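ok trying again, last paste got cut off:
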Amino acid sequence: MDKNVFGLTRRDFAKFASLGACGLGMSGWLNVLAARAAETKTKTKSVILLWMAGGPSHKDTFDMKPGTANAGEFKPIKTSADGVEISENFPKLAKQMHHATVIRSMSTPEGAHPRASYIMHTGYREGLGGLVYPALGSIVSSELGNPEFPMPNYVCVGNRSYGSGFLGSKHQPLVVGDPTRGVENLKAVVDEKNFDKRIGLLEEMEKAFLEDYKAGSGLDHKTTYERAVSLMKSKEAKAFDISSDSAKDQYGSSRFGQGCLLARRLVEVGVPFVEVTLGGWDTHQDNFARVKNLSGQVDQPMAALIEDLKQRGLLDTTLVVWMGEFGRTPKINSRGDKPGRDHYPRAWSLVMAGGGIKGGRVIGKTDAEGATVTDRPVSAPDFMATVCSIVGINHNKQNTANGRPIRIADKGAKPLDLL
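nice, full thing came through this time. structure:
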């Protein structure tokens, strides 16, 4: 049945009209409408993925092992979460840890950057079944995104990421290389009337072509330019301009910090998934100097993001995830006078904050050296299922690819209960 702005069906109106005829006054109508609005009001959750490309060392960030032979240079510090300690290189983030949960028991099968990044974005191993699987951002776009929304439902800031795979071009991410410049060419170079004429002419030409050649690439092209036109005409597009945002200074001046600010602006206007990338975590050499520098680049923006979302009433509906594709070896290597840590998917850490989860906790545990998971191992499919359960997506739902049913999270995935 059709519903109006209050979420009332025609049957509701007939019922309330009859009540009105029997003496229900205007105040009674307002109470009914208010109650029904509260009953039907839902808030779709969003995800901000802070992607640490290269794989951060868990022993030097969120799973410190002080006093062991390969503990490294950094000391753990107390946080706002009772009993939770993290690296001294995150002093601002430490004050926000009561909103966060650290998962210290990630254990995944891929130790090469491309394959590890793929599995952590999709939940599936690359090449499995001959399919290109959709990234988490595309899944969120498909399941939670509004197809009528003029803004993209999946945005990548700072670098390209993984795309929509078999879900199709409508769930591809919009890539913003430099958050301080926003989206290039959003403003039309001609007046609106002439712009509409040009678009109309293009549509006529495309229509004739697509009638004769029903190729997938042609439909993808049509989808792409329609999305571009919709974005150019939308009032929400001003979210890409961070230059006058009142919270700009809180995030710092780094490109990553400004990317976090842009992410907040985008979820604020309704974009359900934003990924912000900070590279450089592949610390085979000079691990400690580089991790200190990179942690410093994360500390202020991530802390500001959590606080800013909280202040704006968005933290409970925005899940913030900090992670890379794997961890680093518990042992320090012997590469010259600037040693480092190598790839290590067997045991590593990630952080989640907001999204309605219970903060101030640690899930899972590794042994004394951070080499082996000793409590509640979490796989890539488990991670995918966990994020889905937090934002309200059925991780067991099946999409169809090449005529085959494909689960959003691979069979056997066990989501963590973080809510």
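cool. The first helix runs from residue 10 to 21. The chain is about 35% helix and 15% strand.
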